[in-house]
Design goal:
binds alpha-D-galactopyranose, 13 helices, Ribosomal Protein S5, domain 2, alpha+beta, Alpha-Beta Plaits, 4-stranded antiparallel β-sheet, 408 residues
């Protein structure tokens, strides 16, 4: 369907019957077996707070959103996965039992899942290996925006590679198989937050996850009062795997140094602010900054829950701004563009709090905005941000939504 028409693609992504019909029009196998076509969808996420804490065994508070990736598919028995992008008409295909090397394209996220599901099936009787399918993918989730388009495609691929009726594994096991694909195939040493949100999302709720114990509970958000607004900086996010992996390695180095002084510490999760004060001077300055961010950010997640539960939105806002400052100054993953968006938000009446969301290095901010102020906030960003940066932002209100599911 080139040239790319994002509105047409979003319509397909949001209307399962239309996506199903488009697959049937495109693919002879689907046309021959129209009753076998399934449509599955996996959402993106925003993270309210708890950034770069997941791979430090800490706490996160993401929300699955109403933007995501949908796939219409017909399962096959030929062991071949073939997927077409509605955006461009491009098709990629591979043998699910022999996915080969990374290609450096979107197809890697599908192939990586086939690889990781195959590995899971070899090591556990509870898992069945990947099977073939022919599918059509449509997305209304901006890519490379820090809204977890990678997790969404991996989760939807996991369903497609398993026939499309149900998730291939117990949901928390699937969270870890997605991580295995990212770490072992894609080459990003990330944590479990994004796919956890895409799988476990609930309407109107944020998800508190303890990334060590894997205990989780959902938190009702005051959405009658407050809107979740994402602002895309319009600067291409270089989630340089290298910068991300470097942060993770720096955290591991900090743990090793702290453990030498405080035996029993196996992750930054184990480090209290008081313990950090004692050891800080003996750490390399970079390690000390990274550790301080993670230790304080974990506390901020729990404080945010308490503030939501006490209906103290002013406190939630202060925690958001503190998180952003820490990501900027201690973790060093912000950008001038993200800082400008947060400054503009802070100066706009009715904005409760703002911070970068996701890995950083570009991408989006998440803003908690009083419902009646959303219009004025949008206007403020659309006028002040280009003047400050020369870039065009995108502002979109998102809804807290359910996790991955079969739609049709
Ligand atoms: C990316 C990773 C997540 C998490 C965030 C930062 O989204 O995929 O695992 O580490 O960055 O909080």
């Amino acid at each position: 369907m080139p040239p790319h028409d994002p509105a047409a693609e979003a319509r397909l992504a949001r209307h399962p019957a239309a996506l199903r019909d488009a697959l049937i029009a495109l693919d002879p196998v689907a046309a021959a077996h129209p009753d076998d076509v399934r449509v599955v969808r996996a959402p993106g996420r925003v993270n309210l707070i708890g950034e770069h804490t997941d791979y430090n065994a800490g706490f996160v508070l993401p929300v699955a959103i109403d933007l995501g990736i949908s796939v219409a598919l017909v399962p096959t028995d030929d062991g071949r996965a073939a997927l077409t992008l509605a955006a461009t008409g491009e098709t990629g295909a591979f043998d699910v039992g022999r996915v080969g090397e990374r290609r450096g394209s979107w197809l890697d996220y599908v192939a990586g899942m086939a690889w990781a599901l195959g590995e899971a099936a070899r090591s556990s009787e509870a898992a069945t290996g990947p099977r073939g399918f022919r599918g059509l993918l449509a997305s209304d989730l901006p890519q490379g925006a820090g809204l977890s388009s990678s997790a969404a495609i991996e989760v939807v691929a996991a369903w497609a590679l398993s026939g499309g009726d149900r998730p291939p594994l117990d949901p928390m096991d699937l969270v870890h198989v997605v991580q295995r694909s990212e770490n072992g195939y894609i080459g990003l040493n990330n944590g479990i937050m994004d796919q956890f949100a895409s799988i476990f999302g609930e309407p109107d709720r944020a998800l508190l996850l303890d990334c060590r114990s894997l205990e989780h509970r959902s938190i009702l958000l005051p959405l009658d009062e407050v809107a979740l607004v994402a602002c895309h900086s319009g600067s291409p996010r270089t989630l340089e795997s290298s910068a991300y992996n470097e942060r993770r390695a720096q955290c591991e180095a900090a743990v090793a140094a702290i453990a030498a002084l405080a035996p029993g510490v196996t992750a930054l999760r184990d480090v209290s602010p008081a313990m950090l004060d004692v050891v800080r001077d003996r750490l390399d300055p970079v390690a000390a900054r990274r550790a301080a961010h993670v230790v304080e950010e974990n506390a901020r997640v729990l404080d945010t829950i308490a503030a939501f539960e006490a209906s103290d939105l002013a406190a939630v806002g202060r925690l958001f701004y503190a998180s952003h400052a820490s990501l900027r100054d201690l973790y060093e993953v912000s950008s001038p563009e993200l800082d400008a968006l947060v400054d503009i938000a802070r100066a706009t009446p009715g904005v409760i709090g703002a911070r970068l969301t996701g890995a950083g290095f570009g991408g989006c901010t998440i803003n908690l905005v009083r419902r009646e102020a959303v219009g004025a906030f949008r206007t403020a960003v659309l006028s002040a941000y280009p003047a400050r940066t020369g870039l065009t932002p995108r502002v979109f209100a998102v809804e807290a939504s359910a996790g991955a599911a079969r739609l049709a």
